[in-house]
Request: fold
Amino acid sequence: MALAALAGLASLGGAALLTAYGLRDPSSAPAGSMSHASVALDAAVLVFREGLEAILVLAVIAASLKGTNAPYRRPVAGGSALAIAASVATWFAAIAVLGSVDASELNVQAATGLLAVLVLLVVMNWFFHRVYWTGWITHHTERRRRLLRARGQGALLGFVLIGFTAVYREGFEVVLFLQNLRLRAGSTAVLEGVALGLLLTIAVGVMTFLANTRLPYRRMLVATGLMLGFVLVVMVGESVQELQLAGWLSATPIHVEFPAWIGTWFALFPTVESLTAQALAVVLVVGSYLVAEHVRVRAPKRRGEAAARIATEPPAY
Reply:
């Protein structure tokens, strides 16, 4: 069903690969800056995570479009392809907007760093994600049912919009996050990561939509969530350092010297503000997970009810 969308992803991934010139030795990176490889890996993890969520939404939609409803898969795929094109356009629009900002490079990087951290905190907030996941799937399911009752040209356009919103929501988040990495490390490293993330997404998409393979989606979401947790810690460390360099935040040394490679790969810097912010980020992520588990599992059990189920496995089709 998503053949057109997968073709668009493959084209974008191929274009990104053409810009790649190999990963740089991290020891050659300036002290206190992320290595070329770490930037590419961070971008790849986020793209793959968001791509996985888009695939799951599309799979749930496609699962019910069988028999006489099968023709509606094409407009969903068309909407997905449009969303990919719109995400690329948003990338260039974001570059143009940031390029027109009349501010110092450090101030722009500090501002985009804060935005990147906020995006990751939302993505990594387990309680929000559980509410969002259930609500987002339910929203698209209800829209699909209404459109199937309506039929006609209006239904075709509606399914195009379903495919578009399912993919563009994730693409927009990725674009916002990647701007800070682009400003810090340049487009080449970021696009290498985008290409890798897209290739992984394409592989999952092919197995889901063309090979009808049932994958361990829940485990994949958890695994990518753990990887994103690491990315969040790195991004918080980098963002705090940028705020300090821009003069937005004080820098209180802890009088312990870290090797340069620790800052390059893990963004661990020997200041109270940096380490405290990273610890708070971990507490927020772990705390949101515990709250989500309490609401979903522990609280229902205390009331003698069954634990709430989260739709992370698309039905077979």
About this structure: The chain has one domain: 3-19+32-302. The radius of gyration is 21 Å.
